[in-house]
Amino acid sequence: MPELPEVETVRRRLLTCLPGLLVRDVLLNDATVSEQSEPELRALLAGRRVTGLRRRGKYLIVDLGAPQRPGRQAEEPAAAAASAATAVSPAASAAPAASPALPAASPAAPSASPAAASAGPTVAVIHLRMTGQVLFRPGPAERPPRFVWLLEPRTELHFQDVRRFGRLWAFPPAREAEFFAGMGPEPFGEDFTVEYLRRELEGRRAPLKSFLMDQRRIAGVGNIYADEALFRARLHPLRASGSIGPREARRLHAALLETLQAGIDHEGSSIESFVDPAGVRGSFQEILSVYQRTGEPCRVCGTTLRRTVVGGRGTHFCPHCQPRRGGMSPGSRRLQGSETPPRPGKTAGGGPPAV
DNA sequence: AGTGGCTCCTGGCGGC
DNA sequence: TGCCGCCAGGAGCCAC
After folding, report:
1. Which of A93, A113, A319, A330 is the most buried (most CB within 10 A)?
2. pLDDT score for A328
3. What distance in Å separates the CA atoms of residue A314 and residue A318, rounded to the nearest whole number?
4. What is the assigned CATH class of domain A194-335?
5. In the structure, how far is the CA atom of residue A308 from the C1' atom of nucleotide C14, in angstroms?
């Protein structure tokens, strides 16, 4: 599951190959990948050079320059599309019709008009969600990519995404602030201080785990790194956010940064399907302390790790290292003492049961 | 306002 | 062996 470290890994890998390349054309094989149509995306992306790669939370941002030789755009991409549709994926044209219940895509999805946007630079924003993979110069694939960027010099960027939750947007830079409005600070940014964390925690009844995963509070933290950070901070995931004291907040702040940095250093966690744009797996999953280790012994104290559900998400913790003192969130009362026992063989339930 | 629960989507797994 | 149904999860949306 791509979270901040995985998206950062993708960004760093793409930095070595994507900037300077020209996007010749954009092909949508799956209309549901974007709320914008293929022609609309083409108008915003094709004929432009990649000028930069950034990340905001779990979003990957590709900066594109103003269109080059605008006069030629109309004919060239169409020809490229025709050749690529067969070369890339025979099933490309069999894209499903747009779902009637097209999921709304973004916090504040700006609908860019192609005509208005085609003159200046643009940004493309990609969210990998659960299983999205950005692959540079990919080999043959089992399934057609959900979208393809044809690049010059001749190569391709593919977006593979088994569960089809990933999304693509394109708009002028002026709309970026609106798009990301409401998203919390970057963990490695200046705004994410211990003071900020304390202020945000204060008075909240939601469980700590839910707080950490709320993108409005902190950008980029998902299920894996929330569980790992809470273990590192020795805080129970069901503690009420508002019950966290100053020292605990400092510990949580440090643990978050350390955990995310460790994820980046290990080039992400490849638990389900994460690979970087070169198809390389990360290694953070090899040093996980609690995530998906239900029933295994804690690496610190040997206690059998447990699993519960917080905010509908599988949550893994050590009952000894992460004690419950300090006040629980209201909804957690009924869960006390009822964490699910280890479930052998279950995908996300963790490993084999402890004897 | 804040919070929990449902929804999307698919592969993998358990159970019959 | 083969089929059915459940489960995982990021984030938008809705109800309470």
Report:
1. A319
2. 58
3. 14
4. mainly alpha
5. 25
Nearest to A25 by CA among A51, A55, A46: A46
3-state secondary structure of A218: coil
Closest C-alpha among A137, A139, A136, A157 to residue A147: A157
pLDDT at A325: 73
Tell me the angle at which helices A194-201 and A246-265 cross, rounded to the nearest 10 degrees.
Answer: 120
Mean pLDDT over the full length of chain A: 79
Q: Could you state, in order of their start, the residue ranges of all structural domains in chain A?
A: 4-179, 194-335
Q: Is the pLDDT of residue A261 over 70?
A: yes
Determine contact, residues A164/A30, Cβ cutoff 8 Å: yes
Q: Find out whether A315 and A227 touch, Cβ atoms under 8 Å.
A: yes
Which amino acid, residue A288? L
Per-residue exposure over A294-322, b if at least 16 CB sit within 10 Å of its own CB, e if not: bbbebeeeeebbbbbebbebbbbbbbebb
- Verify if strand C has an atom below 7 Å from the CB of A222: yes
Q: What is the pLDDT of residues A72-128, one digit of tens each?
A: 444 444 444 433 333 333 333 333 333 322 233 334 444 444 445 568 999 999 999
| Domain A4-179, CATH class in plain words | alpha beta
> 3-state class of A225 per DSSP?
helix
d(CA A316, CA A342) in angstroms, rounded, equals 11
A337 touches strand C (CB under 7 A): no
- Indicate yes or no: strand B within 7 A of the C-beta of A99: yes
Characterize the bridge pairing of strands A147-152 and A22-28.
antiparallel
pLDDT at A24 over 60: yes
Helix (H) or strand (E) holding A22: strand A22-28
Active site residues of A: 2-3, 58, 313
